[in-house]
Amino acid sequence: MTTYSGSGVSVSWRHDGHHRTRPSAIHGWLTKLRGVLTFNSRTIRRGNREIGDARAYHEAKRISRQSRGHHRGFFSMFGSRRHHGEPVVVSSGSGRRRHRHHRFMHFHHRSPPWHHGAHLRFWGWLTRNRRHVENGLIMREVAWKDREKERRRRRRRLRHDGADIRTGAALKRMESRR
């Protein structure tokens, strides 16, 4: 960290030359939006990272308040706003998050969302660029096909899981009768 002190003013920078402030989710969303509009994936990642850092910062701040015994005041008698059964997920310094692993209905491949390619189509419509509009339509069509494939995969997996459950239950009944 570099520090400059001159004429009674002290300013500190990180090594990349930016002034260090606390992370802001709104600034992260704006950075992400700027990256989407300019088709810059690095800026999108930077915005996502700032959003995650802001979540982690606020969560750490909340936990430190709780550890100090900070109360919400008069309205604390009405209970917590958060459900206690939900796990708290805090991002680490690298920005990765812990995910809960579900046993069923988890696939290695995730299809793109239904609106995939809409930004490119909209950008082409704004700039009157037919190639962008066509590419957006192609991306959307590919996303729809991929989503249909995933739906079929889910139905097939659900059928197999149901059959396994029924077969297992039938085997247990047969063993208990012996």
UniProtKB/TrEMBL annotation:
Start and end residues of each stretch annotated as Disordered: 1-21, 148-178
Name assigned to this protein: Uncharacterized protein
Stretches with biased composition (Basic residues): 150-159
Biased amino acid composition, Polar residues: 1-10
